[in-house]
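FW: tagging you since you asked about this chain on Friday. Here's the raw sequence from the shared folder, copied in full. Didn't touch anything.
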Amino acid sequence: MNIKNKKKSTGKKNIKWVISILLILIIGLVSIPFLFKDKIVQMVSNTINNSINASVTFKEVDLSLFQDFPLASITVADIAVVNKAPFLGDTLYSAKSLNFSMKITELFKNADEVIALNSITSQNGQVNIIFNKEDIGNYDIAIQKENTSTAETNESFSLDIQEYALKNMTFRYIDRSSHMTLKLENINHTGKGNFAKDILDLETTSKANLSFDFGDVNYINNVAISLDAILGIDLKNSKFRFKENKGTINQLPLEFDGFVQLVNENQVYDLNFKTPTSSFKNLLALLPKQYSGNLETIKTEGNFDLKGTVKGVLSANTIPAFDISFSSKNALFKYDDLPKSVQNINIDATIFNKTGYAKNTSIQIEKLNFKIDEDVFSANANMHNLTTNPKVNLTAKGIINLENIQKVYAGALKNKLAGILNADITTSFDMNSIEKEAYENIKNTGTITVTNFEYDDKDVANPFYIHKTAISFNTNTIKLNEFDAKTGSSDLTIYGNLNNFYGFLFNDEVLKGNFNLNSNNFKVSDFLATDKKETKTSTTSLKIPAFLDCKFTANAKKVIYDNITLNNVSGTMYVKDEAVTLQNLKSDVFGGKIGFDGQVSTKGKTSTFKMDLKLDKLNIAESFGNLEMLKSIAPIAKTIEGKINSTIKVAGNLNENMTPNLKTISGDLFGKLLNPALKASNSKALSLLSNKVSFLDVNQLNLDGINAFLSFDNGQVTVKPIPLKYKDIGMEISGNHSFDNSMNYTIVFDVPVKYLGSEVTGVLKKLSSKDAAEIKSVPVKANLTGSFTNPILATNIKDATSNLIKDLVEKQKQSLLNKGKDKLTDLLGIGTTTKDSTKTTHDKTKDKVKDVLGGLFGKKKKDTVKGKQE
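HL: got it, structure written out here
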């Protein structure tokens, strides 16, 4: 019993000891990172400051004993190494995290002691190796230590590495002198080996996407590559040998053998590679997956062999000599789900450099031919001096039924493509001649014709048909002999010369040309693509190609623009810098002629236009009633029958359907009316004016020869004063309106008083003829506001009439007073003062006064005849 109790007691003690030890270990594992963090930061800083000549930043350094247990793990977050001059600001290396793992015992060493690393991992970052125009590399940032022994160097890390990894990294190699860029993206690479040994086997797995640009040309774009290889490494001699390996380019399998060795500043290559099988399927495997299709569904016959050697020294002045060949003989391929096959495929091509000097790199295509149905196509070419002045010789001859391309190749266009291509051309040129525009050095002969070409895709409004196009090649120019096409209801024929085809093709220069363009029917909307989403249809705006610098002499019997039909269109168009400049373009429309001079540009995000228009005897109502821009500028004009001569300057933005955006236009309009006649019933504003102003019949207004000047900006139209005449009534109209139809116009009438009613004429009759003659007319003012659809009219006719009557009554009173004074003066004889009549007048006056006084006081005259009293 006591023994059992003793055992239980001992067991409990053991459990307590185990738990205690585990707690101590856990506490230690958790606390050690905090105890050593400052030391780690100091160690990393010492390494950086004593090792490299660059600006280094990092967010923080963390130590963990759990991440790679039983190893300790140091993680540097958001690290960046940025170059100093002469690469100031260029990033050499950056990563979201850089991780080192080591034995825990390494943490107990002093900050200046060497720490042995077991592994390194760099994740989510980039490495940029750059050579400038002086051929200096940005990677040489190590601080040079002179007269210092190895023991005296303050290095903090040693490479006792067992493995390393790159996760989601990007590598760029940029040579600014040769304009060469090599890029590896999405790099995922691991390596395992004992770097503590001088000779080791390194097991590697690698995946990445490769792109390569030389000059302005992209030769390889995002090609998937992979390599699983065991590399035999001799660290003492810096030699790396390929042992077991398996690689792919896209889906093309490759095998390597040979070695690469670093000797001083140079690299020595002795490599051989080849495809492990000779199946023609290997050629299709070179294409990206989205273009090659499912290789499992392809039937092939014949061979495709790729093999090559690379042998020599890569130095500042030389490259390794190489010889890479591609060959096939009587091969065939056919996709299971496609009806036709490509047969009699023969390829004999080589890329080689025999001297070790880059300028002597050449491409030789001795043979390239194939057959689809009965159509045979063949070509051969060679290119020399690729890195200095490439010289090209090319011959191509054959027929291709374009419709068959979709029937033999799974990566072809999914949309309809048809037509017969017939080529027979020979060309010889060098790139220096093209760059210097010495086109006389280019030797071209032959023709290319395409007949019954048909193309349909989402980026065109309608299927595009080319009945026939024919191009002939000459030394200086390429001549477009014929281009006969149709799309929608539009037809188009073009012929002329291309003057800079090779500069356009190889130097990214503009394509220059001089053409004649003819059409019987040209509908602008046929060339505007539409995007159909659910039930809505939106128009994609027309984009003028930036690569064109061409002159077109145009003639079209009919051009349909929006809802307007232009007839007999002729003139000159210059296409350049994503713009079309119109010069002396003329057209018959709306019973007259219209001329265009100006420019349409699609260069910016929003298309713009600036145009001078000349209207010659256009039907007023028809043109201002159908053209939205004119309708907004002068909405009242649609009520006028007759003709107009006008000049219009207008500029603004274009909508996606290439019609003017009325909210953005500005400019001015000067117009002269010819034999006009108003129809007030077609305008609520004019009808209201005619109904409310009793003395005015708008339909009888005389507008012949009237000049009108309008200016417009920001959706507002200002009309300068326009003098008008109605019978013997003078008028002047001025004001403004907006494109949303609101208006504010003032009409001033010079109204003869006879139109102001019987009350005015009655008072007027009571005036003397002299006074009446002084009052001929009265100014009357009318204000037309509201909108063209809901107009409001206010006049001062009542006030003007009332004020006139007051003036006339006052004038009548004054006239009567003046008349009374005159009678009294006559009665008293005041003012009769001539010499001869003075006495007589005086006597007569005395008699008159007596008579008056006698009458006033009742005295009677004597009857001079009968002597009786009256």
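FW: The chain is about 20% helix and 50% strand.
HL: agreed, and The mean pLDDT is 80.
FW: great, closing this out.
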